[in-house]
């Protein structure tokens, strides 16, 4: 039997928004929604990914070997619980964005293929809509070169991956549909 060359990886991430000052807990009008800022981060070039990209913060559910390899959850050896997915998303937003944020709603799980070191990998990324709470004094981690807060159109234009542009669209839809009322 031919060995399955396809590896699986599971990650979680966040689409983080920040309200303009003095905004009430509920976004009621299109004008208010238009003024919401969205976080995008620019990756620092690395050996594996030499080209910097603008992205949404995300990362493996867990890791091993000093962050070099995916752990049991990230490699799919054990199915992650909703709580583990949420914890990973909050952690990644903290590490890559240098902020504290709270989960407002689940956006969904994206699936895509990519090739790394001649290995084809099927990646699952569960994204959450999150609201900014505060900037952290330590700032963003080493993987991030820059963090920007942009209006929806600018944020969408800046994101390097079409899949993440769609995730941002979904996040904005959820926010505009008033889903956040029940969770705030």
Automatic annotation (TrEMBL):
UniProt-listed PANTHER family: BIS(5'-NUCLEOSYL)-TETRAPHOSPHATASE [ASYMMETRICAL], DIADENOSINE 5,5-P1,P4-TETRAPHOSPHATE PYROPHOSPHOHYDROLASE MUTT
InterPro entries tied to this protein: NUDIX_hydrolase-like_dom_sf, NUDIX_hydrolase_dom, Nudix_hydrolase_domain
GO biological process, any: ATP biosynthetic process
The organism of origin for this protein: marine sediment metagenome
Protein name per Swiss-Prot or TrEMBL: Nudix hydrolase domain-containing protein
Keywords, ordered alphabetically: Hydrolase
Domain named Nudix hydrolase: residues: 7-173
Gene Ontology terms, MF aspect: bis(5'-nucleosyl)-tetraphosphatase (asymmetrical) activity
UniProt key word Hydrolase: yes
